[in-house]
Write a structure and sequence with these properties.
The protein has helices spanning 13-21, 25-38, 56-64, 77-88, 129-138, 156-166, 172-184, 188-198, and strands spanning 46-50, 69-74, 97-101, 113-119, 139-150, 204-209, 213-219. The protein is an alpha/beta fold. It starts with 12 loop residues before the first helix and ends with a strand.
């Protein structure tokens, strides 16, 4: 199936509300546990979550890695609004967790992060090198990198089957977005080529994960 890009930013209020209200707890926790397996030494003291949306992963990172500061970045104000509201209610995290509205690439963002994490951002980007150049810019020497995203199925029928399997009871806006995201996603082979073009192929590896994801991980030299 040929890739069909979707809008890069999720700026609709209905979208933002649906994603903020959806229960992605199992998948979010699985990502945090995967980080612990891949990087048992920890993630260091400065973590950045690219394309953080309503902040689900950012909050879990801050809670799991209590000695680290966490920055969540997203380009859509509507998606960040629930994260900012939730953070305002958690004073114990306010000194270590913050959110910024930025579109990548952001040349003025300082580097030196000890970990760069991203969940479900890659398929939104019309130019995937925006992500890989941002990873290279933000990551300090030895930084842990973990990127998780959907992977494109072989056909429209396969995409529909995945939607029916995993989001059959979800709100219509989420079902619509899920199909669009599957069509916009990359294959592991395409991501491997992206890493080659970015000069990261000897530091990061990509593999298929479960029935609909791919993951990229490693440590930068």
């Amino acid at each position: 199936m040929k890739r069909t890009p979707e809008p890069e930013l999720m700026e609709g209020l209905e979208q933002a509300q649906a994603y903020a209200a959806a229960n992605f707890a199992a998948g979010d926790q699985a990502l945090i546990e995967r980080l612990a397996v891949l990087f048992p030494q920890g993630l260091g003291e400065r973590l950045v979550d690219l394309g953080c949306g309503p902040g689900n992963i950012s909050f879990r990172l801050a809670e799991r890695y209590s000695g680290a500061s966490v920055l969540g970045i997203d380009g859509a104000a509507a998606m960040l609004a629930p994260a900012l509201q939730r953070l305002a209610e958690l004073p114990e995290l306010q000194g270590r967790l913050r959110f910024e509205q930025r579109c990548l690439p952001a040349a003025d963002l300082p580097g030196g992060y000890t970990a760069v994490v991203s969940n479900s951002l890659l398929h939104h980007l019309h130019d995937p090198q925006v992500l890989w150049s941002s990873v290279a810019q933000l990551a300090g020497p030895g930084a842990c990198v973990y990127i998780k995203d959907l992977r494109r199925p072989a056909s429209a029928e396969a995409a529909l089957a995945l939607q029916r399997l995993h989001l059959a009871d979800a709100p219509a806006v989420l079902q619509h977005d899920y199909i669009a995201s599957l069509h916009a996603a990359f294959t592991p082979e395409e991501v491997a080529q992206q890493l080659q073009e970015a000069g990261l192929a000897d530091q990061l590896q990509v593999e298929a994960l479960e029935d609909r994801y791919l993951e990229v991980w490693g440590q930068l030299f």
